[in-house]
């Protein structure tokens, strides 16, 4: 008849003439250790070994809502609603909220500094939460993409974008962090870029931006579920 581990252990202790108190103590310690391991595993949050910091870039204030420069904020707002959380906690110059997206822990963030100082918040949050740069994903607007275009990059320069420039600066010149660019198009004619990015989208562009939000979410899902390498190669969930 098969014997249990407990029975085998007890027989071993009896035949080895161990003291009963020592036997009980050792067995209790073993049971306690196994229970501790099981409890720790049960308490572990999904994806707790790979926290992501997802930062949308933009300018704070109602006067900037809906502008081209704030598409990064817009995507974070969309994810905030989807995850059922609220970015109502201010920490390290940013509004933040913990969210569970596709079974992965994500810290959503919107810097409360203006665009040109975004790096202050991003670097501090990355350091505080011990998130390495390869899991700091920045969402921003891109003049060189057509309105509604979406492009994922694993790393790269700032491309003249002041928000990215600030992040690279506060990361000590390191630019090896992923970014998701959402196209806002180039200004028509001789219009100044500084004025153009602070304007809203026209009615004809609304559909493109709505599609960009959905495409961006699909891309982020691929990053979290499949990994950056597969997401960059175009694989989607």
From TrEMBL:
Q: Which spans are transmembrane here?
A: none
Protein name as catalogued: peptidyl-tRNA hydrolase
This protein's source sits in the domain of life called Eukaryota
As one GO molecular function, the record gives: peptidyl-tRNA hydrolase activity
Q: Spell out the family assignment given in the record's similarity comment.
A: Belongs to the PTH family.
The record ties this protein, via NCBIfam families, to: pth (TIGR00447)
The alphabetical list of record keywords is: Hydrolase, RNA-binding, tRNA-binding
Enzyme category, top tier: hydrolase
Q: What is the lineage of its organism?
A: Eukaryota, Viridiplantae, Chlorophyta, core chlorophytes, Trebouxiophyceae
**Which Pfam family name is an example for this entry?**
Pept_tRNA_hydro
Known EC number: 3.1.1.29
Concerning SUPFAM superfamilies, the annotation shows:
Peptidyl-tRNA hydrolase-like
């Amino acid at each position: 008849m098969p014997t249990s581990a407990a029975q085998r252990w007890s027989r071993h202790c009896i035949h080895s003439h161990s003291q009963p108190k020592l036997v009980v103590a050792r067995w209790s310690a073993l049971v306690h250790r196994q229970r501790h391991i099981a409890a720790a595993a049960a308490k572990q949050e999904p994806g707790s070994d790979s926290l992501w910091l997802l930062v949308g870039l933009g300018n704070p204030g109602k006067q900037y809502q809906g502008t081209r420069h704030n598409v990064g904020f817009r995507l974070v707002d969309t994810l905030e609603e989807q995850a059922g959380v609220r970015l109502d906690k201010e920490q390290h110059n940013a509004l933040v909220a913990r969210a569970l997206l596709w079974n992965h822990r994500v810290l959503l963030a919107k810097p409360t500094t203006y665009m040109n100082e975004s790096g202050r918040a991003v670097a501090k949050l990355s350091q505080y939460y011990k998130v390495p740069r390869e899991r700091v994903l920045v969402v921003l607007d891109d003049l060189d993409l057509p309105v509604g275009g979406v492009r994922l990059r694993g790393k790269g320069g700032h491309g003249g974008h002041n928000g990215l420039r600030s992040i690279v600066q506060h990361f000590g010149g390191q630019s090896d962090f992923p970014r998701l660019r959402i196209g806002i198009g180039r200004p028509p004619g001789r219009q100044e870029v500084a004025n153009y990015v602070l304007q809203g989208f026209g009615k004809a562009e609304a559909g493109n931006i709505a599609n960009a939000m959905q495409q961006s979410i699909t891309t982020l899902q691929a990053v979290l579920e499949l990994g950056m390498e597969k997401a960059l190669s175009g694989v989607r969930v």
